[in-house]
Amino acid sequence: MIPLSIPKIEGNESKYVLDCLNTGWISSAGSYVNQFEEMIAKYAGAKYGVACMNGTAGLHIAQILLGVSENDHVIAPNITFIATLNAIKYTGATPILIDVDADDWQMDLDLLENYLQQQTEIRTLNGQSSTFDKSTGKRVRAIMPVHVLGNIGNMGRMLDIAKKYHLDIIEDAAEALGSTFENKHAGTFGKIGVFSFNGNKIISTGGGGVIVTDDEELAKRARHLTTQAKVSAMDYIHDEIGYNYRLVNVLAAIGVAQMETFPETLKAKKSMDAFYRSQLDGVADIKFQKIPKGTDPNCWLFTFTTSRMRELLDYLNKNGVQSRPFWMPMNQLDMFKEDIYITEKDVSASVYQNSISIPSSAGITQEQLETVVKVIKEFYASL
Predict the structure, then answer these.
(1) The model scores a pTM over 0.90
(2) pLDDT given for residue 29 in this prediction
């Protein structure tokens, strides 16, 4: 079976993990945690990085840092991995779901702007201008864009919208390490960005995430909250509700090794993407995710649409090519069915029904790529 997306372990991972084991530094204290934070922040062009146990934890902390509470709404795209919405619910806030663009599958900014223009109003709260949803009376506190599959929408326009309506931007950049828009790295457009390093991401620590920001105070508080809000290095004194969210040293060690080889990994991902696009262009009704002008994606997971998605999915998996459907739209899940969903044509449903992800591991070989394409073409030839 050619796997869908597995980590590429070809550097110093074993060496650094063994160093942790030999020295006893395996928990959240240790030099590799600090080094990994610094490497991610520097690569993304952010001033500060705070490593946490996973991207979901990072999104949860990011919202706490910006004061998101149970009386708030947070805007998010309807197509995303469920972690985005779960993190919003952890705070007690309520998501407002925005349908996605039919071409690039990112949050539809026309729908976003129309919603804010027609269904919200700006009021003064505690001496500051804030946006409120007219129907619920709740404050619309933030926008959480998701860089779906490592692609990035028009962040310049989103920043303008956010500024006009007094909204903070928290970027779910879980899939977007290595992606840029107009030469600015994912995760650095808003006040806070969050990366994920789960097992199938472009680099992996098994489980892990990093919060990035240019705000020193936000970074300090993020580090404080993720280590149980412990005030004293000696005494067990805590000054607020904290979380056991800190990344452990042994996993950070893997991350350091992964970052050392990341330039080669990114190059391999782009090469894979280019091969698939060249070989599958014009095959049956296959359509690719559009890359917006100014965006340079990391090509994390190759996904395309076809009306034969379910049949192709079954054929590929039966013939040694591990493939998966796309995420179910959030408004179709029981937990979010009652939340506000802004849409005109329900593009999300169409994207979900027709999208399939095919093998995209960083270490995929040329022979495997050719096999994947061969099996796909065989399927359509058999119809």
Answers:
(1) yes
(2) 86
